[in-house]
Write a structure and sequence with these properties.
The chain is α/β, with parallel strands linked by helices. The chain has two domains: 88 residues, Arc Repressor Mutant, subunit A; 170 residues, 3-Layer(aba) Sandwich (Rossmann fold). It contains 14 helices and five strands. Helix 1 crosses helix 6, helix 4 crosses helix 5 and helix 9 packs across helix 13. The chain starts with a helix and ends in a 7-residue tail after the last helix. The relative contact order is 0.11.
């Protein structure tokens, strides 16, 4: 991790460690700043105050409570982080270096993918993982939500979960959140929310709605600093190493597949029964091609 990311992660840790000491207004300011780090890097103190429904003096006092001289010094942490990430995407020499290794691109991607999966697995809180899978397996209904670049992982998770249990549905489409599905949520349901940076605003807004309904949230994301981390009951982080200039989806896909598999193993007889019915149904519909 580079120094800029270290600085940002330290800020997130500091805010969370002081959560109980913060007033409701200060917590709201923290939530608005952290939900979109890229946007925060460009905010004026007036804009930050408007976003958090607070006055400018309160925003300044919030920054000072965290040890900064004022909002501008606090904002500089977000700017340094953004500059580092933008540099990684626009560094021509980096791209040229990748092109020079193009003949071995498959081996490079394979090595990164193996490391990504291993690191993601090593960092999982197994006790929390088991608890989340148990809750999902026994919940009346499971919903998934992932938009934009997280949509593929959410679709895969929905498909795999539906192979082992009933009442699994997606809250998101390729174009946005199904508002009518959100309305039907109950406290005993489980919602699995997937989002990685840059976080889709509609996903975070929907997750907050779910939180207000007291429905259990399982988050699959890319960092403990993700805005989902402070919303979810369970948060699992996938490493998102870059295979080229774009972040890899391997870690997120690994989490989705592994979670669906764990849910299926909670009650093997029930899983086998549903799988048998599914097999007969697909056969009767001639779903799969045969010779």
């Amino acid at each position: 991790m580079n120094n800029q990311d270290d600085e940002y992660e330290a800020l997130v840790h500091l805010i969370r460690s002081k959560s109980d000491e913060l007033s409701p207004t200060h917590r709201r300011i923290a939530d608005r700043l952290l939900e979109d780090p890229q946007r925060t890097a460009f905010l004026s103190v007036k804009q930050a105050a408007s976003l958090a429904r607070a006055n400018e003096a309160t925003v300044v006092r919030f920054a000072q409570k965290l040890g900064f001289s004022g909002f501008l010094e606090l904002r500089s942490v977000f700017q340094h982080r953004l500059n580092q990430h933008a540099h990684a995407l626009s560094d021509v020499s980096q791209i040229e270096s990748m092109r020079s290794r193009s003949e071995d691109a498959v081996a490079t991607a394979a090595a990164i993918s193996r490391d990504t999966i291993a690191t993601t697995a090593d960092n999982l809180d197994r006790k929390a993982w088991h608890s989340a899978a148990q809750m999902a397996a026994t919940a009346p209904r499971i919903f998934t939500l992932g938009l934009r670049h997280s949509y593929a992982a959410a679709y895969l998770l929905t498909y795999l979960l539906a192979m082992s249990r009933d009442d699994v549905a997606a809250l998101g489409t390729e174009t946005g959140v199904k508002a009518e599905a959100l309305r039907s949520l109950r406290p005993d349901d489980v919602v699995i929310v997937i989002s990685t940076e840059p976080y889709a605003r509609e996903t975070i807004t929907a997750a907050r709605w779910v939180r207000e309904r007291n429905t259990t949230i399982v988050a699959l994301t890319d960092s403990d600093a993700s805005p989902l981390a402070s919303i979810a009951d369970y948060c699992f982080v996938a490493r998102t190493e870059r295979t080229t200039i774009l972040p890899s989806a391997v870690g997120l896909t690994f989490l989705a597949e592994s979670f669906a598999a764990h849910v299926a193993l909670v009650d093997p007889p029930a899983t086998q029964k549903i799988a048998a019915i599914e097999g007969k149904l697909l056969a009767s519909l001639h779903t799969h091609w045969t010779r």
